[in-house]
Automatic annotation (TrEMBL):
InterPro entries: Antitoxin_Phd/YefM, YefM-like_sf
Function: Antitoxin component of a type II toxin-antitoxin (TA) system.
Family label: Belongs to the phD/YefM antitoxin family.
Native source organism of the sequence: Metallococcus carri
Protein name stated in the entry: Antitoxin
NCBIfam families to which the protein is assigned, alphabetical: phd_fam (TIGR01552)
Pfam families documented for this protein: PhdYeFM_antitox (PF02604)
Amino acid sequence: MEAHSVRSAKAHLSRLLHDVEAGREVTILRGKRPVARIVPIAEAQRRRFGQMKFSVPDDFDAPIPDEELARWQ
């Protein structure tokens, strides 16, 4: 894994992207502290968002009953 300062990353972004496309990771440092990591998109797509499972009832778009609608007005 390569590490580059922000300044170096800005100056060599095209080369860094080429390296990432080849499967390598690049870390961006602010001073000596890592602040970002550039990874190939295929790796990032493996993560799954929305772990919560839910279902939508068949009548989710049915009109709101008049008594409930009155509470909102």
